[in-house]
Design a protein that fits this description.
Structural class: alpha+beta
CATH architecture: Roll
Oligomer: single chain
Order of helices and strands: HHEHEEEEH
Number of domains: 1
Strand content: 25-35%
Number of helices: 4
Radius of gyration: 16 Å
CATH class: Alpha Beta
């Protein structure tokens, strides 16, 4: 079953985020999944909260697009490096729309059991994204993106 876990994990960025197919989450995420990433402010920590976050994220970034840059599968773990990009055309989590485009990198590690994601770790270059969007100051002499 080599590669099956990667296929499951890739459905998150490629189908859920890129295409807005939030019902896919029910197929690939365990209801009791352990999330090691910081909670999303203003969203419940369950599948319903995650689906609402995806809807809001896609509304704020209507051209949101993820690309898988690299991935590794070892046993029940899948590590993925992805690049996301989008133009902030709507408000998001208290931040006003800026109309600016950003490109950022994300690293995700997921544990798969019985065809579902049961555990997740994520690291997102949120500071780089916020600087490109004009929502965080760019240090003097540093490139914005």
């Amino acid at each position: 079953m080599s590669g099956e876990n990667k296929r499951i994990v890739n459905r998150f960025p490629l189908e859920v985020f890129n295409e807005g197919k939030v019902d896919v989450v029910d197929e690939i995420q365990a209801p009791d999944m352990i999330e090691h990433q910081a909670p999303l402010p203003g969203y419940s920590p369950d599948i319903a909260g995650f689906k609402q976050f995806v809807r809001d994220y896609r509304a704020a970034f209507p051209d949101l697009h993820y690309e898988i840059l690299s991935e590794l599968e070892e046993g029940d773990l899948v590590a993925t490096v992805a690049q996301a990009s989008g133009t902030m055309k709507g408000d998001m989590m208290g931040m006003p729309a800026t109309g600016k485009q950003a490109r950022w990198t994300e690293i995700h590690v997921a544990r798969i059991r019985d065809g579902k994601c049961v555990e997740h770790w994520g690291v997102i270059d949120q500071m780089g994204m916020l600087m490109q969007l004009g929502l965080a100051p760019v240090p003097s002499g540093a490139p914005a993106g």
